Amino acid sequence: MTATRRELTRDDLAPLARAALARTPTAVTRIRGGSKKGVYRLAFEDRSTAVAYVWSPDEDLWDAGPGDPRDPFSHASGLTLFTAAADRLAAAGIRTPRFLHADPTHTHLPADAALVEDLPGGTLEDLLEGDPAAAPEALERMAALLATLHSCTGPHFGKVAVVDNGGFSYGSSCEEIVVGRALSDLGELIAREPRVAAVHSQLTDGLGALAAQVRPRTSPPALIHGELGPDHVRVTADGDLALIDIEGLLYFDVEWEHVFLRLRFGHHYDALRSAHLDEDRLRLYRLAMHLSLVAGPLRLLEVGDFDDPAFMRGIAEHNLGEVLTLLRDAS
Prior knowledge:
Layout: H1 10-21, E1 27-30, E2 38-43, E3 49-55, H2 79-92, E4 99-103, E5 112-117, H3 124-130, H4 135-151, E6 158-159, H5 160-163, H6 174-192, H7 194-197, H8 200-212, E7 222-224, E8 233-235, E9 241-243, E10 250-252, H9 254-265, H10 279-303, H11 309-330
Antiparallel strand pairs: 1-2, 2-3, 3-5, 4-5, 6-10, 7-10, 8-9
Helix pairs in contact: 6-8, 6-10, 9-10, 10-11
């Protein structure tokens, strides 16, 4: 199990701030969230702020080590993935926190690090929960952002950092990758969750049956965030939207994004729904996503030091209920 994360201090982050802004922070505060990297708000004497990202093994609760980027679903962490994603989104006209400085050589910290613009206005999740009157306009902007994002395509599926550099990913299709990951999650869950072990063969057969219904796709894969909940969208002072936690950006089936959007946006999803989705892919991806959201939280609780284990157990339990419901409905 990863040891408890040590919070970086003002002295730790001062060299990075001086390199980026020629200023020393007066205070440093860890921002909640970020299970794969450390996220810190730096405050300065003139009351301005910036945000530091630190991709250190000590900050990664998953204890996963470097992932193979040729696997579209490998551990999405690191400065290389972040900068490639930021460049791609900028080219698409989609806002992210403005990039201020990168330190890939570990000059200022013993890890990859970057300093970015702080957007302190809160997340879209905060707005949807706290300001219902502003929700319709914000969701309209979110729908427009999705239309822009998903209209961008790649020559083949995979992480942006791989594809945009001329590389290729493992696997022959998006659906093959999804099924392979789902079977891997299922294999893990047999040992961790007796309720899954009891229906292992039915779930394996169900995944196979759903995959058999998916027809080959000839259109190019879309640009997707990969984990696009309202907590990964910040709202600027002028009401604009900016994507954060972008390291997992990839070219993939847009249905994968929409399954996650539906899960995370709940009743607000109707404002984001697309009429041009493959229902067979949605059914397969929905089951695979729920399996992932059981296996992932249980894995994190076993190897990491998450600061709210009850919350993570709640995610696993909810998604296990969805898995069992889908299995029951299919039988």
